[in-house]
Amino acid sequence: MAGISKDEVLHVARLARLELSEDEVARFQEQLSAILDAVSKVSELDLADVPPTAHPLEIENAWAEDEPRPCLSLDDVFANAPERDDDYFRMPPA
Amino acid sequence: MSETWEPVIGLEIHVQLKTETKMFCRCRNGFGGGPNTQTCPVCLAFPGALPVPNRRAIEEAIKLGLALDCTIAARAVFHRKNYFYPDNPKAYQISQYDEPLCSNGRLAVPTADGDVTIGITRAHLEEDAAKNVHVAASGRLHGATATLVDFNRCGTPLIEIVTEPDIHDADTAKRFLQLLRQTVVELDLSDAELEKGSMRFDVNVSVRPAGSGELRTRTELKNMNSFNFAAKGIEREIARQIGIYEAGGEVQQETLHFVPGEEDSPPIRSKEEAQDYRYFPEPDLVPVHPPAALVERLRAEIGELPGARIGRIADTLSFYDADVLVTGGLDRLWSALVGAGADAKEAANVLSNQFVAAGVDPGTVNAAELAKLVAARAEIPRAAFDEALSKAGDAGFAAGPYLEQKLVADAGELDPVIERVIAASPGQAEQFRSGKEGLLGFFVGQVMKETGGKADPRIVNERVRAKLSGT
Question: Percentage of chain B surpassing pLDDT 90?
Answer without folding.
Answer: 60
